Amino acid sequence: MSFAIYPSLKDVVVTVTGGASGIGAEIVRAFAAQGSRVGFVDLDVTTGQALAEDLSQKGATVAFEACDLRDIAALRQAFAGLKATLGPAGVLVNNAARDDRHGWETVEPEYYDERIATNLRHMFFATQAVAPDMIAARKGSIINMGSNSWWEAGGGMPVYTSAKAAVHGMTRSFARDLGPHRIRVNTVVPGWVMTERQKTLWANPEALERQKVRQCLPELIEPVYLARMVLFLASDDAAMCTANNYMVEAGSI
Hints:
By secondary structure, the protein is α/β, with parallel strands linked by helices. The chain has helices at residues 22-33, 45-57, 72-86, 109-137, 158-178, 196-201, 205-214, 223-234, and strands spanning 13-17, 37-42, 61-66, 91-94, 140-145, 183-190, 245-248. Helix content is 47%, strand content 15%. A seven-stranded parallel beta sheet has the order 3-2-1-4-5-6-7, with helices on both faces.
């Protein structure tokens, strides 16, 4: 396939959470290919460093900060480090999440709080960290990763789906509060994306066949397609797009 180049993304500073692997790594690569200055954070130090080194060797401007996003003080420190290296962010991609399966019967308050910290809370504080510089610049794009799991009334991970449903409310509220400063806030809604984690843990032949039947399009969704939607929403081409959901789920029902 031939994909678009967005001139407005060249030299723009982009911050991506959970950027070491999966969808996040594809987003980091996609922005690097656009000539953006890309900073990303992740808990996985080895994989994060390897990705940053690989892209840097290819001529991209990339910086990595190791960070457990459940620790808000560490998040703030990591974001400050990226800003010191690359400059203030013009784009934030709140990608980090983990869709661990769990039954509602066994959830304890400690696990519930940890799941919310993993899948929702850091998005708020990441937005808080970059918004002042975007306000000063009178421009910015914040892209939150949602999920179609709750749209489809998916079961087997109720705290995860609760967190992802909340992402949409957070997106719309921030879009209202930051809109007067010309900052756009949107949600990208993935279907079942074939990351290595999904392939290893849950994408058995029977599950894949069921998924193909549920989708309007027959091909399985690869991470690159999520990255392409993120690029569009970050670019000036999406200048009038805010407070909305952008589905990348192959028409899944």
